[in-house]
Amino acid sequence: MVTTTAKLTLDEYREQEAIAQVRHEYRNGDLIEMPGGSVNHSHLLMALYVLFESMLDNADYEAFNSDMRLWIPERNQATYPDLMVVTGEPIVNGDRRDEIVNPTLIAEVLSPSTSSYDRGDTFAAYRTVPSFQEYLLVEQERPAIEHYWKTDDGRWHLEELRGLDAVVNLEHLPVQLAVAQLYRRVRFEGS
Known about the structure:
hydrolase; Nuclease_put_TT1808; alpha+beta; six-stranded mixed sheet; tt1808, chain A
């Protein structure tokens, strides 16, 4: 990840991002260039979106791909999660039609350059969003998913799922994800 050297205002970031050829996260004045993806990363992103769209085929939920930005007010941060699911109507940030503030679920496909950040600082930032209840971290090198969910008492629990026979049972959405279906187009090294 590449960080800019000069601090930008939020308005300057939004102006630049509207015409940028590569996407950037905004972290309290810093622009961080988002790395490009791999074939496996792309397959997993598409599968996540298609699976959620097909399983949440009603007016109560809406899935967003990585083109939609998440605004995290408590951190003064804008980011592009790989997938977000909103319960009910999406709430936009003021008059911004390109930033939402109320995801229930966020999923990230891990890459070598972002996996530590997605598990640490990113997850910490997401947890400041009041509507956020569930987090999926999807490995691209092997069939493995880390499933985090928030309980009624505000604690976060982790379930680690390994192998193509596993099934992710979401706690806050009416969804069961078969790991084999999610990884059906992924090519693992040596296969």
